[in-house]
Amino acid sequence: MIIITGPTALGKTRLAAQLAAYFGGEIISADSRQVFKNMDIGTGKDLQDYDVNGYQVPRHLVDIRFPGDTFSVYDFVEEYNRVKPTILQRGKQVILCGGTGLYIEAVIAGYNLPFVPIDQKLREKLQSYSDKELAHLLAAMRPLHNTTDLTDRDRLVRALEIEFWKKNQPKEVAPIPPYFIIGITAQREELRRRITQRLHNRLNNGLIEEVRGLLERGIPPDKLEFYGLEYRYVCRYLHGRLSLEEMTSQLNTAIHQFAKRQQTWFRRMERKGFQIHWLNAETGPEELIAQAKHLLEKHRNQWDELHYQSKINHV
Fold this sequence. Notes:
two-stranded antiparallel sheet; globular; 12 helices; alpha/beta; single chain; 2 domains; 54% helix; Rossmann fold
């Protein structure tokens, strides 16, 4: 499996689509927000990038949920496990693309995320706990990688429900697929410049209108705020809590901070032993594509040789 990742605004989708067209692949999106329909600009779907010289690269886990729904890492792994075999059955290359490090790690680390049933007795017991007490209880049971669990009581209770269920289950090790990770990076100032430029492009191309349309369809503002920075800050602008200038400035800063958190996650993955082959986006899109193809061709040759030698040794 080919994995394309890296911080926001560096062209992951375009690179993945070009590689998919070259290697005969299909893309599985590893993005926590692009699963939602009618949320194209704020989630950065860049749908035009899937068109490679008139060929529409097949994509999966994009536009599969309605605004207002929830989508967790459990949902992602479940959908991934449903889609990946169908791609392989067609004889196609699987390409996982996105910047949500938790989703990527869940797949390549073989996270065991089984279906956990509702525990009504536990839920009734937890009703007497405050949000702060629930958060402390969850922190005592597992590391808090996903802090969004702490912002909503229902998510807190569900997270605890899962942890209590797991305590009583036998340990299982999920199979880990062979993978090759390509990360796109850039110097800090270049990354900041691209983030700011992309934000202005989105604002000039309908981001505010997209958020207004979602509100008019009846999506509650608190739900929209949960779907990411762009929706959070534009909602505040549309409700008169921020001026246009304040919204743009604060949103820009927040996206820069988000990109920094993404980079921190990738460094953490590397410390845990996941090898990421970094390519510099500043070389330009065509050179980036050429370097990625070269890396993957080299890896494929090494992989084929390894399997050839393994067969000979087995004989």
